[in-house]
Specification:
InterPro entries: FERM_domain (IPR000299), FERM_N (IPR018979), RAC1-GEF (IPR051835), Ubiquitin-like_domsf (IPR029071). It contains 2 helices and 4 strands. The model has no long low-confidence stretch (mean pLDDT 81). By secondary structure, it is an alpha+beta fold. The chain starts with 9 loop residues before the first helix and ends in a 6-residue tail after the last strand. Helices cover 15% and strands 20% of the residues. The protein has a domain of 64 residues: Phosphatidylinositol 3-kinase Catalytic Subunit, Chain A, domain 1 (Ubiquitin-like (UB roll)). The chain has a two-stranded antiparallel sheet. A hairpin with a 5-residue loop joins strand 3 and strand 4.
């Protein structure tokens, strides 16, 4: 009596391994290698209007930057988020996660 019962998480009830990463890769898949080369500093304006700087390889796909932002914010489900930016015509577009 007086003990708090620990309830299993939904994932553990379904047999999923415990994982606090942000990737949803299937078992056995590996993320693409991060290209080496020159690093590029990118400033990200967060929703609370703060700015954070991230350094990513110049030819890295957009997913590398999104993963860095998600790690910084301790987001577990990074697949539900994205980054947007103004293009050369000042139109806001979503960052393509597959393109460098």
């Amino acid at each position: 009596m007086g003990e708090i019962e620990q309830r299993p998480s939904p994932g553990s009830r379904l047999g999923a391994p415990e994982n606090s990463g942000i990737s949803t890769l299937e078992h056995g898949q590996k993320p693409p290698p991060t290209p080496s080369g020159k690093l590029m500093s990118i400033k990200i304006q967060m929703l609370d209007d703060t700015q954070e700087a991230f350094e990513v390889p110049q030819r890295a796909p957009g997913k590398v930057l999104l993963d860095a932002v998600c790690n910084h914010l301790n987001l577990v489900e990074g697949d539900y988020f994205g980054l947007e930016f103004p293009d050369h015509k000042k139109i806001t577009v979503w960052l393509d996660l597959l393109k460098p």
